[in-house]
């Protein structure tokens, strides 16, 4: 492996993580329900990936029934993950949404032995307690009676669903093309969300549609392509640590672009969650 390839992969990896982090800001920029944001993001991402695979990669999107069933299930989970993530940010803040979501490696530590019949590491209990302590610190005073607590709970639900999605991908679709998996999961995510859009239709302006297009193409399809490209050279463990920087990128961006307040208590709580996240990621 040349130093040039490694450098390019590191740039791609951190660019992808930055784009992932900035996607959280769209929950505030788009004055739309979380379901509409997820639907638009999934549709535009799926269309982009289909164009990329068929027109440029010259590959088929054909898929056997067993894999398609697994992708349908994981697509539904992806829809819930994104919906709960945007709901968390809309109810609270980008900081709370991103830091609570960053707890997903803890759920992986608990669920991995169940999915793959691997030994349980009891250090996961301590990691879970540290994560809860960190999340408690990021909540503002009085948050037990406000939207911040509800937002944090949605963020934890987003983290849990992402952990399940990660493990199911490892179990059922790890040997499939990454772009093909992403295409079908986004397609099924859109299909699962579609009935909610029909039941409660929302008017979307041309400006909002443009922003959704940018979210789906640049901050989702392109970001995932960069991330997958980096994994060809970068070890998964290093990538996991890089992903831990997502809340930091997002919180700094929210401070500059949205004017969100960052207290010292939130910084301490966030550092506890992120440090525990790195610990959990590097000890599996």
From TrEMBL:
Annotated coiled-coil segments of the chain: none
Q: Give the EamA domain ranges.
A: 14-139, 150-276
Principal localization reads membrane
Q: Where are the transmembrane segments?
A: 37-56, 68-89, 95-115, 122-139, 151-169, 181-199, 211-231, 238-256, 262-280
Q: Where in the cell is it found?
A: Cell membrane
Q: Which InterPro entries match?
A: Diverse_Substrate_Transporter, EamA_dom, EmrE-like
Top-level lineage group: Bacteria
Recorded topology in the membrane: Multi-pass membrane protein
Q: One of this protein's Pfam families, by short name?
A: EamA
Query: Keywords for this entry?
Result: Cell membrane, Membrane, Transmembrane, Transmembrane helix
Please report the name of this protein according to its UniProt entry: EamA domain-containing protein
User: In which organism is this protein found?
Assistant: Thalassotalea insulae
The top of its lineage is: Bacteria, Pseudomonadati, Pseudomonadota, Gammaproteobacteria, Alteromonadales
């Amino acid at each position: 492996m040349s130093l040039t390839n490694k450098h390019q992969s590191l740039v791609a990896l951190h660019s992808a993580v930055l784009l992932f982090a900035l996607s959280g800001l769209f929950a505030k920029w788009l004055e739309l329900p979380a379901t509409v944001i997820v639907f638009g993001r999934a549709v535009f991402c799926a269309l982009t990936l289909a164009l990329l695979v068929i027109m440029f990669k010259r590959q088929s999107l054909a898929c056997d029934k067993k894999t398609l069933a697994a992708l349908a299930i994981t697509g539904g989970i992806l829809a819930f993950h994104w919906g709960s993530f945007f709901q968390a940010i809309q109810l609270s803040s980008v900081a709370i949404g991103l830091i609570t979501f960053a707890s997903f490696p803890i759920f992986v530590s608990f669920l991995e032995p169940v999915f793959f019949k691997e030994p349980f590491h009891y250090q996961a209990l301590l990691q879970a307690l540290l994560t809860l302590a960190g999340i408690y610190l990021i909540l503002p005073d009085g948050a037990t009676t406000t939207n911040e607590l509800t937002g944090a709970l949605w963020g934890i639900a987003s983290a849990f669903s992402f952990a399940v999605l990660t493990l199911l991908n490892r179990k059922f679709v790890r040997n499939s093309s990454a772009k093909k998996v992403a295409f079908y999961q986004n397609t099924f995510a859109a299909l699962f969300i579609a009935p909610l859009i029909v039941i409660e239709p929302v008017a979307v302006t041309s400006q909002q549609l443009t922003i959704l297009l940018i979210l789906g193409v640049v901050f989702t399809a392109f970001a995932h392509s960069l991330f997958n490209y980096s994994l060809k050279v970068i070890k998964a463990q290093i990538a996991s640590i890089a992903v831990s920087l997502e809340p930091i990128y997002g919180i700094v961006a929210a401070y500059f672009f949205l004017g969100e307040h960052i207290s010292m208590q939130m910084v301490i709580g966030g550092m506890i969650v992120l440090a525990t996240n790195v610990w959990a990621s590097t000890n599996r």
